[in-house]
Amino acid sequence: MRVISGKYKGKNIMGFDIKGTRPTMDRVKESMFALIQNDLKNSTCLDLFAGSGSLGIEALSNGAKKCYFVENSEEIYKILKNNLSSIENNILLKKDYMEALKYFKNTNIKFDIIFLDPPYKKNLINDIIEFINKNQLLNDNGIIICEYETENVSTNYFKLIKNKKYGNKKVNIYKKL
Q: Does the first or last residue of the chain, that is N or C, have fewer Cβ atoms within 10 Å of its Cβ?
């Protein structure tokens, strides 16, 4: 797997073949980033279920100011740390997703773009979006990008501005108004 565009275009990303990771396909990632390209410049991003770091690295490659990467698995964390070794402006946290969200709340860290690509079939997205809203972790005009398979994703907190289907994967983009 490689970074598809921007400053780090062509950089190899390791970890796509490890059990417990499910990397975003290049065509999905390319389409996703085309939809948010105008929001990336100087943004602060969160890649909450980072895995290999593919989404956050792509954001940094395309003009994000800073990206927080959260990963809980020891094995995947080590690979992610290696993937980020030559990437600027990253903050890597080895935490459970909820522990990380509480940390951001308690330290008053807010985001312009949040990538939510949790393990499929765990039905976490709606609860995470509710926590983000309740604790004001998304800046005004910020966006949340959700990648999922069968989960019933819906929210009254943010406006759905785009939803696309790629085979069995779905991507919703929500905006804070």
A: C
Q: Are strands 111-116 and 138-148 parallel, antiparallel or unpaired?
A: parallel
Q: Which three-class secondary structure state does DSSP give residue 74?
A: helix
Distances (CA, A) of 76 to 8, 16, 91, 153: 21, 10, 16, 26
Tens digits of residue pLDDT in 142-169: 999 999 988 888 888 899 999 999 888 8
Output the pTM of the full model.
0.94
* Alpha carbon distance 56, 59 (integer Å): 5
Residue 56, both tokens: 């956050």
Helix (H) or strand (E) holding 82: helix 74-83
Q: Which two tokens stand for residue 53?
A: 């770091």
**101, 135 contact by CB (below 8 A):** yes
Domain at 26-175, CATH from 3.40.50.150, 3.30.420.40, 3.40.50.2000, 3.30.70.330 = 3.40.50.150
CA 10 to chain centre: 20
